[in-house]
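sorry for the late reply, my laptop died twice this morning and i had to redo everyting from scratch. anyway the thing you sent over, i finally got around to it. pasting the sequence first so we're on the same page, its 281 residues, then the predicted structure underneath. double check i copied it right bc i was rushing
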Amino acid sequence: MKVRFWGTRGSLASPGPYTARFGGNTSCVEVRADDGSVIVLDAGTGISRLDRELPEDMTRIDILLTHLHMDHIQGLGFFAPLRREDFDVHMWGPPSTAFDLSTHLGRYLSPPLFPIHLREFACHLTLHEIADCQFEIGPFHVSANLVCHPGPTLGYRIEADGASVAYLPDHELGFGAVAIDGDPRWISGFDLMLDVDLLIHDAQYTVSEKMRRRGWGHSTPQEAVRIATRAGASRVALFHHSPDHDDSEIDLMVDEARRAAPDGLEVFAAAEGQVIEFGRL
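ok and here's the structure:
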C-alpha cells in the first residue's frame, strides 16, 4: 500500500516560497493498494493534481469525504473523472439531520458558486451516506466513525496489503469532559487509530492558538503525538496545516512535537507530493 499527499492545508494558503515545502492546497490524500486500486480521502484543491496521475485505464474511483466544509470539497468540480462518461465515481460521506449528501454537495456544485449542477457531470455518480460502520472497497477494508468536529464529521481507517492508515484531518482532542488521557472508549476516534501503521492527524494549532479557539474543531501537534502514543501508532503525520503558518513555523511545530514524542514514534509534517510506502508483511 502507498499513501501520497496531494493537499495538506486546512484552508488555501498563498502560493510562493513560504509554502514551498509543505504546499498550499487543501486536504486530499491518495491511498493506493498493491493491485492499483485507489481510494481518495477528501476532495480539497489538491485533488486536481491527483487526477493527472491516475492510470489511463482506470474506470472507478472512490472518494471518502470526512465532512462538507469547503476546504474538503473545493476541488470536486475540477476533478477530471467527474467529466468522463466511462467513469464510475463513488462518493462516501457523513449523514445529516437536515439534508441528504446530494443536497449538501449540490449547494456548492451549482450556480452561483459553480457553473454547472452536480447532476450535470458526465460520470456515473453514486453517493453513499455512512456513519459508524465498516465496509469493503475492492482490496480495502474501511472503518468509519463520527469524530469531534463542528458538523457531522467522519474519521477513517483504511486497511489493505497488511498495512493500516488512519485519517482524522479535522479532529479536536481534549474538548469537553473527555481528556486525551481518559478512558479510551470515550476518546473520539480512538478505535480508528489503534495500532495503526500511519496516523494522519489534525495538528493545525499551536498551543497558544488552541487556548483561544477551543470548540473550533482542531488539535495541536502535541495532542496528536499524545493520542498517537496512546493508540500505539507507529508514525504520525501532522496534517491540516494552518494557512497562517509558513514552512519555518511548521518546522518549529514539528520540532516541539518530536520533543514530546516517545522513542519509537516517528513524527513528521505531511507535505504535498510526499509518498509513504508500506512493504508487504
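The first strand starts at residue 2 and ends at 7.
thats about all i looked at so far, will dig more tmrw
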